[in-house]
Amino acid sequence: MPQTALDYIASLRAEGHRDADIAAALRGGGWTRWQVRYLLRGTVPPAAAPARRWLTRTLVFLGLLGLALVVIAGLLRVSAERTLAAPPAHPLLLPPGGLGDMPPSTSRAPCLAQVQRLMVAQLAYATDHENRFPCPRDWKLNLREYGVPESDFWCPDDARRRQWFLASYAMNQVCDGRWGIGPGDPHLVLLFDSEMTSGGPECARFRHDDGANVGFADGHCAWRYPSDFKLERFTPQRPRKVWWQDG
Q: 3-state class of 200 per DSSP?
């Protein structure tokens, strides 16, 4: 039969028929598509259809991928079980008082030194101006006249772009020299870590170990937690203003 089909194809080609017409005639005679492809190439088709190699390769790849996923999942499970079963960290690896006694951040001390220098300039200004602090809105410009460099207005942890009208510290808005406020009260906050140049406790930024460096109206400086402060009314004439005091 295959040889007869090959002879039939040769005769049709000799008569000038196209391979497409010949393939249609062969399929009409009961030949399958893969048998017709062999016959048109002039070869006898095999007894069975050829294996689809692409399908075989795909099935092998999927099997290997599934096996790899099972292995990875098992390794992750073993690792998680070992982590949960690991003993706690040795107490000698922690400070004697626990995490609360961890050393301060490296930028906290330089920042506090800058606040101290700013407070020296604040007191010098008050001495020259009838024992009154500068206006909180213009205090940075006023302290420039006392030789304070631009770098002292910026905390090492403040990554913002340096601009002449901004600073890393704010002056307490109620410490306005125009209201007669001057040096003396050791509990009154004057300067504090912030991203504004003036304001109240809502402007504070506790950027150093969850605390802030603060300068007080008597000139001393310290690092404080937010819970160390309390608010008190300023004066009856300005009931909306508040002192910001060390608790």
A: coil
Q: Are 191 and 122 in contact (CB under 8 A)?
A: yes
Local confidence band at 59 (pLDDT 50, 70, 90 cut-offs)? confident
Q: Which residues sit opposite 235 in a β-bridge?
A: 238
Residue 168 to residues 163, 196, 212, Cα–Cα distance (Å): 11, 7, 11
Sign of the C-alpha dihedral computed for residues 50, 54, 57 and 59 taken in this order: negative
Higher pLDDT, 88 or 77: 77
Residue 238 phi/psi, 5° resolution?
Answer: -130, 70
Interatomic CA distance for residues 153 and 168, integer angstroms: 6
Residue 239 pLDDT more than 50?
A: no
Contacts of 77 (CB under 8 A, 6+ apart): none
pTM: 0.54
| pLDDT at residue 21 greater than cutoff 60 | yes
CA gap 204, 226 in Å, rounded: 9
Q: For residue 123, how many C-alpha atoms fall within 13 Å in the half-sphere facing its CB?
A: 15
Residue-wise pLDDT tens digits, 147-206: 889 999 999 888 888 787 788 898 988 888 777 777 888 888 888 998 888 888 888 888
CB 168 within 8 A of CB 158: yes
Exposed e or buried b for every residue in 47-60, given b needs 16+ CB within 10 A? eeeeeeeeeeeeee
Whole-Å CA distances, 178 to 53, 140, 184, 223, 231: 92, 16, 16, 28, 21
Do 211 and 115 contact (CB within 8 A), yes or no?
no
- What residues have CB less than 8 Å from 117, skipping those under 6 apart? 148, 152
